[in-house]
Amino acid sequence: MSYKEIIVTTPKPLPSFALALLPILVMFSLLIIGYGLLGLRIEALLLISAAITGVIAFKMGYCWDEIMGAIVAKLAKAMPVILILVAVGGLIASWMISGTIPYMVYWGLRLISPQYILIGAFFVTSVVSVFTGTSWGSAGTVGIALMGVAAGLDVSLPAAAGAVVSGAYFGDKLSPLSDSTNFAPIVANTTLYEHIQHMLCTTVPGFVIAAVVFWVAGHHHTEIICATTPPKVVNIIQGLEQLYHFNLALLLPPILILWGALAKKPVLPLMLAASALAITLGIALQGFSLQQSFQAFVGGFDTSMFHANTQPSGKISADIVTLLNRGGLAAMMPTILLVFCAFSFAGILSLTGALTVVLGRFLHLIHSTGQLILSTIIATITVVLTTSDGKLALLIPGELFQDAYVKMGLDTKNLSRTLEDAGTVIEPLVPWTAAGIYMAGTLGVTTLDYLPWAIQCYTGIIFALFYGFTGLTIVKRPTLIQQQDSCQ
């Protein structure tokens, strides 16, 4: 009998509220104290949380095979994400071999002034993500190049990463091509374009606030560094010119990625194809061997490969080494370990039904629209923190709270908007979620470092709460009296 069959054929009663709450409180306590205060490795803390949750599962009557089955099932669902994470490492290294990322950095350094890099990164990734519907693709293509520009201009990397993440999730939240934008109205029982239209009420104000902050921060930072930036920029530009043979053909890999995203091609084959194209360009245009290309693809790119080709005439500067020595399949292994640890805890927690019990308790405490919105936000964030799964963060609260919205005479597009405000865009702010791990690994900045700057990702919650308690933009069901201040 398979693990899946064991889980399905041996249902158990749901735990009490206290027992259901225990593993969630334990995980939060371990992460806050161990990770936040003591600096302990998050992987070990998640495994301890999983072990404690496993003991609770044993107490409820689940056997070891059922627990393992739940973990395996969870990891099986995460496997596409894991494979994409691995492919991202190879993609970055291959784009270093071809000169694609250095080419974009080169022109970024030549065209973008330091005071405009933050606002530019925010706008560029916003546009790309809206048209492609993928936050990961936006951050993994133009985001990487923009981070390189920021490093060359001596701009704060956490601020730059926050700008990239903000822009990437602006599109992920609003684009009709985004899977989460399509999924949220489905689970909330509303339509796609009503959902997008309603989302503008929380997303656009957040966009304006983020743009103002990045504009002001960029100009303030420039006043501090303007005296020392030009020589460093000149050195990097000259160094890249010496190392690579630049031409427009180097833009073919990102063009392939953008085309595939717009055409909704499968992500993994698309990334591998872009990597193969980049390796071909690296061999044909940059003079690297097939052996070097494969070595970089697996182990990461290293500037020592240039010396093997006797291309540079002098020592490569430390700034360029820091910029170029990145990527590789192996570089993603620590990230994948974190995914395994997080989903081990999430799998056992899902098996026990603890989340269903805890979130169901919220329904007994709701007496107003504001409380309903607040409860939806708390429930959605709780699912994000405990399951590390953005889709579950939309699905579980969507199913639990839909009847409550209907009973209070509210249009369910209020629910779909709140789910995205507290789920989709909060996921990259949590270090142990797939999105948080991806963004940190891709951009080279830890999640907690870029979190304060990811303004677009948390302003939605602020406006959702404001609207919920004031009644502004809250839409009633069509069969009831429509509210004056609505966003339809």
Automatic annotation (TrEMBL):
Pfam family for this entry, one: Na_H_antiporter
Main subcellular location: membrane
Residue ranges constituting the Na+/H+ antiporter NhaC-like C-terminal domain according to the UniProt record: 167-472
InterPro entries xrefs: Na/H_antiport_NhaC, Na/H_Antiport_NhaC-like_C, NhaC_Na-H+_Antiporter
Keywords for this protein: Antiport, Cell membrane, Membrane, Transmembrane, Transmembrane helix, Transport
Localization per Swiss-Prot or TrEMBL: Cell membrane
Keyword Zinc-finger appears in the UniProt entry: no
Residues passing through the membrane, by range: 17-38, 45-62, 82-109, 116-136, 142-170, 199-217, 243-263, 270-288, 336-360, 372-396, 453-475
Membrane topology annotation: Multi-pass membrane protein
Similarity field: Belongs to the NhaC Na(+)/H(+) (TC 2.A.35) antiporter family.
Protein name: Na+/H+ antiporter NhaC
Species this chain originates from: Shewanella yunxiaonensis
Upper classification of the organism: Bacteria, Pseudomonadati, Pseudomonadota, Gammaproteobacteria, Alteromonadales
Gene: nhaC
